[in-house]
Amino acid sequence: MPEVDAAQLEGEAMLSDRIADLVEYLVVQIVDDPDSVSLEVIDGDDASTIEVSVAEDDVAKVIGRRGRTIKAIRTLARALAARLDTAVEVEVLG
C-alpha cells in the first residue's frame, strides 16, 4: 500500500469541501427550510460521499419527480469532481 502524506490528504479534503459547497448551494435554493440543511463529507479511499440532511418535508423536493432533481445535483457534483480529478457520491437523508 503506498504511503499518503498529510498534505495529499488535506488537498483531497479541500476538493471534497468545494464540491460540498456546490451541493449545499443547490439544495438550499430548492428547500423551504434552508436552516435545516446540513452536509457531512465522508472522505473514502476511492471517493468522497456527501450526505445531505434536510427537513422531512423537503426530502421530496430534493429528490424530485422520478428522482430527476437529485440526479441533476449528482451530475453537477460529479462533473465538478471530474474537473478536480476526484470522485464523489451524493446521498440524501431525511
From TrEMBL:
<comment type="similarity">
    <text>Belongs to the KhpA RNA-binding protein family.</text>
</comment>
<dbReference type="Pfam" id="PF13083">
    <property type="entry name" value="KH_KhpA-B"/>
</dbReference>
<comment type="function">
    <text>A probable RNA-binding protein.</text>
</comment>
<dbReference type="InterPro" id="IPR020627">
    <property type="entry name" value="KhpA"/>
</dbReference>
<protein>
    <recommendedName>
        <fullName>RNA-binding protein KhpA</fullName>
    </recommendedName>
</protein>
<dbReference type="InterPro" id="IPR009019">
    <property type="entry name" value="KH_sf_prok-type"/>
</dbReference>
<dbReference type="GO" id="GO:0003723">
    <property type="term" value="F:RNA binding"/>
</dbReference>
<keyword id="KW-0963">Cytoplasm</keyword>
<dbReference type="GO" id="GO:0005737">
    <property type="term" value="C:cytoplasm"/>
</dbReference>
<keyword id="KW-0694">RNA-binding</keyword>
<dbReference type="InterPro" id="IPR015946">
    <property type="entry name" value="KH_dom-like_a/b"/>
</dbReference>
